Amino acid sequence: MTNADIGRNRDNFCYRHPDRQSFVLCQRCLRTICPECQIQAPVGVICPECLRDQQRAASPTQRKAERRWGRRSGGAAVAPIGGRAVATYWIIGITAGVYLLQLLLGTPVTALLLFNSAYLEPALGVVEPWRALTTLLVHASWLHIGLNMLALWMIGRVLEPLLGHTRFVVLYLLAGLGGSVAVTLLAPFTSVIGASGAIFGLFGALLVIGRHIGANITSIAIIIGINFAFPFVMGLLSGSMAAIQISWQAHLGGLIAGAAVGFIYARTRAVRQRNLQIGLLIGLGAVLTVLMFVPAMITG
């Protein structure tokens, strides 16, 4: 995403390293800081200058408390929240662990975690809405999980340092929920598994955030287009969409939900907008949840 077009907006670069793009602000001075400069504070991150000012202003009692609780002082910085894609690696590890359970225990694991809108119908006897998210953990084959986790690894290493761990996880979950909602509305009573909806959500967020910071998003748009068109092309070649067994509905829902989250992040970067950001994310999650239950409410 780093190219000559980004130079139009210098606010998207670290103030200490002008060649490094970032999407994270110091919580005190509101300047943009790269992962190397991010120092974790009790809430959010701060820059090295603000850390030094904070340490100079600290009373002897505060310094003693910091030493007692094991905080690093002086000029050393604690690990930045955006330095590594920690959440990305955790998601990959958990998903891989669940797939190993699928191999060891067989279909029961898949049956317990897959999503089908039938599990939202009280008239059918079982209501298990959490499946809208657990379906992200189960996959049909090595190729299925391999491609999804490779995409997650590639995008997560770019996107997570820009957003921070928590925002990235929220994006992943809301995008996955969006994929399940689209399956409910467009392909009711269809069983689906896999993290593709969440992956497409990361694509959508990357597209929106890239557009916001002035990057050339043509390549991202092309990749999204190719991936979204793939099941339709394969269906035409094989003569049957059912034979492909790819849920384009989940891809579409995840893409839209991820783009919505990316838009929220892009428009609520300032510290003073933190509560607004949280409120909008909660609101989006509530809207998706209501939409997921719409068919059940109509038939009920």
Binned, the helix content reads: 55-70%
Mean pLDDT: 81
Number of domains: 2
- Rg for CA atoms: 22 Å
CATH architecture classification of the largest domain: Up-down Bundle
Query: Which CATH class of the largest domain applies here?
Result: Mainly Alpha
CATH-wise, what's the superfamily of the largest domain? Rhomboid-like
**What distance lies between the first and last C-alpha atoms, to the nearest angstrom?**
47 Å
Please list the strands of the largest sheet in the order they lie side by side.
Answer: 1-2
Amount of beta strand: under 5%
Shape field: elongated
Count up the helices.
11
The description of the largest β-sheet is:
2 strands, antiparallel
The H-and-E topology, N to C, reads as EEHHHHHHHHHHH
Q: Which structural class do you get from the secondary structure elements?
A: mainly alpha
The CATH topology of the largest domain corresponds to: Rhomboid-like fold
Count of extended strands = 2
Low-confidence stretches: 68-82
